[in-house]
Structure formats: structure tokens, C-alpha cells
Amino acid sequence: MTKDQKLKSKKQKYRRKILHFLFFISIFEILSLIFDFATFAALPASTNFKLQEYSFGAGGTTNSTSTNFKLNGIAGQIEFGRPSSTNFKAGIGLTYMMKTNLPLAPTLSNPSTNYDRLKIVINTGSNPTDATYAVQISTDPTFATNSNYVKNDFTIGPTLATTDFQTDTLWGSASGVSITGLARNTTYYVRAKARQGNFTETEWGPASSGIATSDPSLTFSIDSSTLTFTNLNASNAYTDSSKTTTITTSTNAYNGYVVNARETAALTAGATTIADYISPNSTPTVWSGTGFGYTTNDNNITGGTPDRFTNGGPKYAGFTTSSPGDPVADHPGPVLTAIANEQFTITYRVTTSSSQKAAKYTTSVLYIVVPSY
Amino acid sequence: MADTSASQIFRVSPIIITIPLSPNKTTTETVTIENLTTNPLPLQTNLNDFETTGEEGGYVFPETRTNPLLSWITLNETTVILGPKEKKKIFLTIKTPQAIPLGGYYGMLFFEPVISTPQQNVTYVIPKVGILLLGSIGVLDPKAKNAEIVSFSTGLLHQTNQFPLLLRVKNISLHYLTAKPILTITPLLSFSQQISQVSTLEDKLVFQGKIRRWEQIIQLENNFPNIYKVHLTLSSGNGNVIKEERYLVVFPFMKTLFIFFILLLLGGIITKRKQLKNALKALFG
Q: Which of A27, A51, B51, B160 has the largest count of CB atoms under 10 Å?
């Protein structure tokens, strides 16, 4: 290769390098325009606005952090006390501005006259949906004594953990949730605080009205205390199925109640008895044959298929003599509205054979009501 | 013959009494009993054992008094005569001995009308009301695990927006506890209409060493096919919480298959319509 050729080749090489350099610079500029590359550290920005430049007059840094703590810069004016009223207090500075809205007094109620729980509905104070709330509960309207916190399982406990702050959705929104494990016949007050990320936690908001838990009670009645069957003879086919007992129950027991029935013995006259109807409570049958039995109009009863007495019925079962008896009426939990005068009817039937010894047969039938647990 | 005997109505409060006990201490509990009729009402009291059966809240109350709690209780009146509309307080004095093992002690207190002069030829109907007595001795370490989930299932594939829930919880502590399950159901494929659903199930008492069961159909609020995460938070008191998760898919598989086969059939008919026409001609002339 000649000297000229070598020089030409070198020139071409440098020209190519310069072109490459210019090409990369152009590409970078184009990309910068497209993606708005930041040449410096990210500046505070939201979807619509960007702070191009900022500083603090007294020097220092935007914020300082250590393993456990972070200090945010405070912008504001000199404080001359904090004007306050009973429910509100003025605050200043960036930290105050970052605070979530103070939640107003939660709504506390006892719609089911329960004895161990009260319903709470959070008043969000127009906070965004991702704000979280904690609730303090006390028997003292000033919260100075007997104060506890509502844990994230809605029971009460002596300490408040970060996990006890929950969104309004988890607090049941407008439907609210039940705070459980409360003492019976006691008045409670609640108040809430909110947060939405670090350094945003409010103080405790105003307290709710005092709402009392009830005493758990149960009222039980039967419409008559004795039972007399018609004289059984050929004209009535040795049958009486017209006698009933109506049982009436009222309670605020959260898990409801069960009424069990049993007899002390079979219908007896001296040494002679009328046998109990053969079908058990778990599988009652349409009446067939003889005996002393009962049916219930409770179509959702515990102890087997719920409508076993009514579906295709009436279906009958014989009384048991063993404790606690068999279920004849119930109301399963959870009881969200107190049960008032709930009535069920037990209808008896006695059918004997024509050869049954003529006599007066008697027994005692017990209806035992207990709260479900 | 029509029955003309009087009705019997009475109210008892409270109906579940929790009794915190300490060795060698005397505690007093009060039960209020009220006659709601305009007739006098004589009532007798009975203390019986209370034993749980099965996982569904079953119980028996044998007419025995083997539970030590019953021997520690003295009633100020064992037979009460209530005047018309009268309300009376019955005091239960519970005196515990010096040395007693930690744990739960249970019993039932019954009120039953007394038939003063029973007649020979009458069948009596007797109402009886039971009060559940729940005693516990000792305070448990709040950090100690007191319950465990024996089973938690939701099924995996579901055609409609409901699924069967089965939850069984065992009490592994020495005291009874209240178990309170909360389900948070979150759709994993995000659509704007779909949000998390929170279902609080019934609280249930679980006695020591026993299992309680929740078996029910859970209705999903969302009507859309999706993959759901079912997050269970089981509270067992004292701030104890157990968490578990299950996943389930809601998709109308059968409906989709049916539509697919219908489309396949229609496609076949359209593409093979000439052969089909010839075949029908050959068949029916």
C-alpha cells in the first residue's frame, strides 16, 4: 500500500469514528427527548407537576435517614402556640400538612342488644380508600382509664400494633364490624385515628357516644302446663292428633338457642304402657302404626336433615327418655337481630290398637331450652 | 277435652356465665329470674354436668355432678317461689379449694317449675331453662398458641360464584376459647368492578381438646370468572391469630364446553352442508 493510500485509509477511519460518535450523540438526544432522561437526581413530581428546583434556606439536606429514623424537612413559619377547641387543634409545618384527615367519631351501636359485642362503623373523615384506621375503646369517656385497643381480629387488647391499622373496607365500610369479647351490661366509648403511610398518623379523633352491652337473657314459655288426650275409641280410630304445645322463646344469645324435648317415661297406667312411636328424631316418618309421638313445625332444625319433620310431612318421632332429649325447635347463630317471641308448635299424636288396655295413661314431657355455644 | 291450664313464662338472665376462678377464693355470681305471668310460679334449681359432643356444638347434661365446679357452688335458694310478675336474684357463691389444676370447669344450672300437687291422671308439660356456667382457672400466656386449624378447604374448581367452606379448629389450650374466623376473598385477575370481599363467620366456643366445625356455602359477591385467593384469619382470643390461604378458580367449565360443542356442530354443518344435504336426501328420498 502506498503512503497516499495509507493516509486516505486513516482519514476514512477517523471520519467513520466521528460519524459513529455523532450518530450515538444524536440517538442519545432523541432518546432524551422521548423519555425525558434525567441527568440529575429525581426531583419531586406528581402526575401533573414537577418541582424543577428546590432548596432549604438554612442549608442541610432534603432529609436525613439512619437505620431506624428519618427526618423530613419542615417548611413553615414560626409557631405561636396551637389554637384548639374541644375536638380540633391547629397544626403547622410540613409534618402537619402530611397528616391524614382526622377521623370523626365512629358510630357505635348495639343493634341486636348483644351482651358481648358492639357494632362499629368508622367515620373516614373523607380520607382516601388506602388510609388505615386504629380504634381505641374504653369504659371511660375520657379514655384516661380502662382503655384498650381493637385488634385486627376485632377483639380487644392492651397494645396497639401497626397491624391493627386497617382500611375502611376491612372495618366493614358502611356495614361496620362487631367488636367482640366485651363485658356484659357495660357502657363503652370508641375513638379512631388514621394514617396513610409514614409520618401521616393523626391524633385520636373525638369519642363516640357511650353505648352499653346488654345482659344476656332468655325468656321461655309454654302455652299450657298439662295435656289431656281425647278418649281413644273405635269412633276416632283410637287416635288423637289434635293436641299441641306452643313454645315461645326470646333471647339475645349470639349463637341462638336449642329446645330439647324428652319424656320422663312412656305413657303409663300402672304396669301397662303405650309404647313411644318407633321413628327417632333424626329420621322421623309419616305416621304408620301405633304409639305416642310428636312432630314440630320447625323446618330448619339441628340434629339431622333440617326440614326432616316438615318436608313431605308432617313426620313423627317418638320421645326419648334420656337427657338432654332431642331437638324440637332451635334458632341457629349468629343472631344478628335479637330473637323476640319466636314460636314453634309441637303437635302430639297418640294411636293405640283396639286391644290396648283401657286406662288413664300419663307421663311428663320436658322442654329444655339452653343457649347454643 | 280442651286444655285450660295456665301458660308458664319466665325470664332468666344471664344465660351464659363466665366465672374467672382462683385457688382458695370465693366468687359470687348473680342470676336474675322473673315470673312474667300473673300467677305465682314455684321454681326449683338443679346443677348438672355439661359435656360437649361432636364438632357441631352438641352437648349432653347428665344428671350427675362429677365436674368439680358444681361442688364448689352454693346457691342461696334451691327452691324459689316467685309471686305474680316478681323478679328475684339468685346468688351463686363459688368457693374454690387451695389446690386445683389449671383449666376449664363447666356445668349447667337449670330452673324448672315445681308441680306442687301432682295429679294422678294428668300428663304434664314442663318448661326448663338452662344456664351455661363456664369457669376457668389460671391466666394463659397470651403469646402461647391456643388453637390449630385441623382442616381448611374451599375446593379448587367451581362452576358458579359460590364455594363450599370447611373449617375445623382444635383448641389445644387448657381453657375454652372463642374462635372467630374472618375470610378475605380477593380476585387475583384485576377488573375494575372486582374488589376484596370480607366475610366474618360466626364466633364459636371451643372447649379444651375439642374441635369445632364451620361448614357452609360462601357466596362470592363478584359474578365474574376469576382466580380467587381466600385468606383466612382465625382469631382465638388474647390477640392470637392464625392465618392460612387457599386458591380457587371460578369458571363456567360446563357452559363453556357446551358452547364449544354447539359451535363445533354448527361449523361441521356449515362446512359439510352438501354431504349432509345428500345424506338427508338419500335417507328420506
A: B51
